[in-house]
Amino acid sequence: MNCKYQQKEGLSEILAELKDIDESILKVIFKIFKREKIQDCLEFLTITENQRRIEQYYIQEENIPLLAKENKFKEKGSVQKITQTMKKIINHDFNKNNYSQQKYRTIRLELIEKIQEDKKIFEFLQFLVHITSLDNRFIQCGSNSLNLLIQMKVDLRGKVFENIKIKDTSLTGANFVGCNLSGSQFENVDISGMNLNGAQLFNCKWNRIQIHELYKLEGHISNVYSVCISSDGTTLASSSADKSIRLWDIKTGQQKAKLDGHSDNVRSVCVSLDGNTLASCSYDKTICLWSIWTRKIILKLQGHSQSVISVCFSPDGSTLASGSGDKSICLWNTRTGQQRAKFKGHNGSVNSICFSTDGTTLASGSEDQTIRLWDVFTKQQKTKLIGHNGGVNAVCFSPDGTTLASGSSDNFICLWDVRTTLQKAKLDGHNGCVNSLCFSKDGTTLASGNANNSIHLWDNKTGQQKVKLGGHSDSVYSQVVVQISQSIYGMLRFVNKKLNQIAILVKQIQFAFHLMALHQHLAVRIKLSVYGILRQGNKK
């Protein structure tokens, strides 16, 4: 204990040596590091000529009048002080161990008490975070520095933290709203409660991410195929190969009801926008409409000659569309149960269907490698889109209805201009079948999932990949499904029963995201505010 206490005192004394510097020189130093791509920051700073260059650059950068140099520029020893401080820190316990651990709690709290009002130290801690992007020898102290800044509630909103490397620490409750974290790497980091609303996350890497506050939704006794959340965010519906549908209370994680009505695997579920009706479809060739409130079957729809694979409500809830292995699409009156129309044109099973936001157009994706657009009112095919070399597994309209996304077994995603029916972009990034697609509520981001345990986030405007989630070499998933809704949803299933707690469901509620997990026989809810993290793997 005494040894640890001395380590803590040593660190506070080291940081106290920075009390006379002008903290703005830290930005100048990092700018030079970044411009010259310095990988050994300490060696660079120990060279006298480099110290002079920094001082001269600082004077020019800050535009300091000649007569004010001696008064303003305390930096005549500041670069040396910063250099000496970094020399001490690189060999300190602060750069060797995870200071967010419980055993360092007393040291951490006493340190915070001493430095929490010192702006110069705040800036130096941020400087240490920044140099992790260049010099790997400072990764642990940079990670500990970020942990301290978060605990002291230093305002980090809108900061640029590109390419930083954060490892072995806790970022619980971090507020990174509007931050630029592009290119950054996070390994063995606790991100519970992290807020990344509006943050830039292009090409981020997440490995061994820890997320707490889990709900285990246990009930299904076979594979979970599909999940959907009610529009008010209170109820989760799940369908399974055990022939049942389960309703879950999202707030408590408790099962609200088990719905039995199908005689074979329940392939997909969808909740109407008003939250009153649940549709389910099954390999038994039927579709059931359920009352969310009474948990009873309202209508049982029969009209397909093979398994029903996909269902989707129109925006006003008056029509339900169903796609089947019999190559057809049916439109149903949700009040009477009468079949309004039957669309034929595909030469393979209809894997996915989606209504446009105005309800006038239905998109369908098929195993025949095509996408068809149908006029809901005239019941006629509007156009056929050809661009894939494999079965089309997913289709999704953007919220404004101008773009249609399609995902295929050829590993590609196509973006189509709905008005001109021309292909706008072809997104290449998956190394397996694209099984699922969904746009974020604001339409700026497209989420895609594939059978190789990864989920990708794309910029809808540029077609650039923002971030890849998962994708580890030790594949543990058999399927990724993203439900079509106003929010982003995702589902992952296991192959390996020895692994559990895989984060799989994202729901956007007023820019706050909830993660949920489902795997074989088990669903897990992860409660936090975070955008972009979908995977957590823990071994039993």
Automatic annotation (TrEMBL):
Alphabetized PROSITE patterns for the sequence: WD_REPEATS_1 (PS00678), WD_REPEATS_2 (PS50082), WD_REPEATS_REGION (PS50294)
InterPro entries, alphabetized: 5peptide_repeat, WD40/YVTN_repeat-like_dom_sf, WD40_PAC1, WD40_repeat_CS, WD40_repeat_dom_sf, WD40_rpt
WD repeat copies, ranges: 217-258, 259-300, 301-342, 343-384, 385-420, 427-468
Keyword terms: Repeat, WD repeat
Origin superkingdom: Eukaryota
UniProt cross-references to PANTHER family, sorted A to Z: CHROMOSOME UNDETERMINED SCAFFOLD_625, WHOLE GENOME SHOTGUN SEQUENCE (PTHR45333:SF1), MEMBRANE PROTEIN-RELATED (PTHR45333)
Protein name: Uncharacterized protein
Organism: Paramecium tetraurelia
